[in-house]
Structures are given as C-alpha cells and as structure tokens.
Write a structure and sequence with these properties.
By secondary structure, the chain is of the alpha/beta class. The chain has ten helices and 13 strands. The structure holds alpha-D-ribofuranose (RIB) and sodium ion (NA).
C-alpha cells in the first residue's frame, strides 16, 4: 500500500485573534492583531499525519478564490496530496473565526463555505480510487452528513480501518455506529453522542452535575463503554489536559496520562491526535501504542501558534515519545 492515511473532512482558513480573555455574549475584546493560519479539522489532521512522516491524501473542497489556493498550497507544503480536493464554482473557501485566550483556550465559529458542498458522490469517486491503496481512513464531521456517511460506508466495504472523529456531533453519527468505526470524541462529544444514541445510563443522567461543569471521568467512561458496545470497536476519548481514555470492546477502560505541555494555543490539538493516531494504526501499531504516540503529538502541538504551528515532525515525535516512555 502506498498511502498511509486518507482524510475526509473540512479545510478552512483560520483568522485568529489572541485576546486577554474570551468574549462573553455581547462583549467586545481587543487583541493586538489578526493572524492567518491553515485550519479545518480534516485538513489539520492530514497535516499532522504528513508531518509525522505519513503518505497522506486529503479529500474535501475549497472555493475558487485566493484563500482556497493558499489553503491548498499550505497542505502541499506539508506534503499532503490534494488531488482529491474539489474546487467549488459557487461557494467561498471555509473560514474559521477564532479567539485564543491567555491560557491557550479558544472559541471558534466556522463559516463552512465550500465544505458544505462536499457531496457523497465526490467522496465516493475519490475513495474508490484511494482506499484500495490506503492503510486507514479518517473522517471528521465538518462536512455534510451524506458525505460523512458515504465515507464510513466506503471504508467498511473496502475493509479499511476507519476512524470517525465526531467533531461536531452530527445526528448521522448515531446511524453509523453499527458499521464499527473507531470513535474519537472529546468528553463533551462523548456524552452528547451517548445521549443521542439513547444509551445514557443512570450514572450519566443530567442532574448529576450542573450544566457547564466539567463532566466527571466516570460519567464519560460509562458513556464511552455504552458507545463501544454499539460499535463493537475500541473507542478513544480525548480529555485535553487530562490525557485520554481508551475503551476496548469488552468494556475495559484505560486512562492514558497526559504528557506535561507548554500551552500557547490548544487549537488543533484534537486534530493532531487524530492524524497521528490514524498514521500509527495504518502502520500496524496496536491501539495502545498508537494512542500514546498521538497523545505525545497533541501535547507538542499546543506549544505552537495556530492549529498547525506546534505539530511535530517525525524526528521530534520519535525523540519526545522516547523521553515520555521513560
Ligand atoms: O480543530 C480546530 C479547527 O476547527 C480550526 O482549525 C478551525 O478551522 C475549525 O475547523
Ligand atoms: Na497549536
């Protein structure tokens, strides 16, 4: 196989303001300037996998505009194959408006633009060509539900391992659980997905914790186990500064500890995790080793500005992973 990872998902241009705090509704906050970075969860994950040494193809859509051409150049500069990207005649390239607070936390609003034009037909045409050559398919959900569903079905039909990153949680994800994708939600997405799938247990029931409170590890673990029962696959929950939960199909929950990180900008940490996880799985690593490597990559990514700034090269990742394993 000559491709490690195929990624189906969104590509955006990120307009980023570093501000003294995140704005409350109706509030204006003022930062020094605006930075422009490459973004979109799909494209970010593709860059993470490529920078970590993978042969990566990205499938998605941009507009017929300068931003789109820049987005493609950014991907190509990182070695990502963009032959699977359609150019929309009508919609502009997707844009994300991002505010980053002093602790590296963020607030994001996305104008989907051309990402909303990704069709099931286009995805199937690209995957028909790419999947027979690929080790892993990574699908994220900032594109239409029909395109997400087409991709997950295609992976299943081709017998290619599929990671489904439900960010954001679209209702279609629940319909795809039976196809056995490896889900990689964060804590909030995990709880939302369990609720949508109707497997919210007593322990997870609302009322346990006031809204806005960080969900407890045990409630997230319970939701993850219930979801893993539905997919029959392993499930991985990313917990940011708290590390990662891994649930195996038998329901055993393992907590992978975080690697201490210098935090500048947490944007794209989840995308980095997903891209490197996909690469490691494509290369035949067992899940626990793949999760540990992805965890180290994500912790390095938050040290650089923008979604892609801190994503490690293969050498950086190998060095840090060796240090972290001690
Ligand atoms: O996950 C981070 C990404 O989410 C940003 O790059 C932004 O484009 C949004 O899609
Ligand atoms: Na970053």
């Amino acid at each position: 196989k000559d491709i490690d990872v195929v990624v189906v998902g969104a590509v955006n241009v990120d307009m980023v303001v570093n501000a003294p705090r995140l704005p409350a509704p109706g509030e204006t906050v003022v930062g020094r300037g605006v930075e422009r970075h490459g973004g979109g969860k799909g494209a970010n994950a593709a860059v993470a996998a490529a920078r970590a040494g993978g042969a990566v193809c990205y499938v998605g859509a941009v507009g017929d505009d300068d931003t789109g051409r820049q987005a493609l150049r950014d991907l190509q500069d990182d070695g990502v194959d963009t032959s699977g990207v359609e150019v929309s005649a009508s919609a502009p390239t997707g844009v994300a408006l991002i505010v980053v607070g002093p602790g590296g936390e963020n607030q994001i609003a996305v104008g989907a633009g051309a990402n909303d034009d990704v069709t099931a037909e286009a995805v199937l045409a690209q995957l028909g060509r790419l999947l027979p050559r690929a080790g892993c398919l990574l699908v994220s959900t900032e594109i239409p539900a029909a395109a997400v569903a087409a991709a997950v079905h295609a992976a299943r039909a081709a017998g290619v391992p599929c990671i489904l990153n439900p960010a954001p949680v679209l209702p279609v994800v629940v319909d795809l659980l039976g196809l056995g994708p490896l889900l990689t939600p964060n804590a909030g997405e995990c709880l939302a997905l369990a609720e949508q799938a109707g497997v919210t247990s007593q322990e997870v029931a609302p009322g346990d914790a006031p809204p806005d409170e960080v969900p407890s590890l045990s409630s997230v673990g319970e939701a993850a186990r219930a979801l893993a029962e539905l997919t029959g696959s392993e499930l991985v929950v990313t917990l940011g500064a708290d590390g990662v939960l891994v649930v195996d199909p038998a329901g055993t929950v393992t907590h992978v500890q975080p690697r201490p990180a210098t935090v500048r900008d947490t944007t794209g940490a989840g995308d980095t995790f997903n891209g490197v996880l996909a690469l490691a799985l494509a290369r035949g690593e067992p899940l626990d080793a793949a999760v540990r490597l992805a965890n180290v990559a994500a912790s390095l990514s938050v040290g650089g500005d923008g979604a892609r700034g801190g994503m490690p090269t293969a050498d950086e990742l190998t060095t840090e992973a060796a240090v972290h394993a001690r």
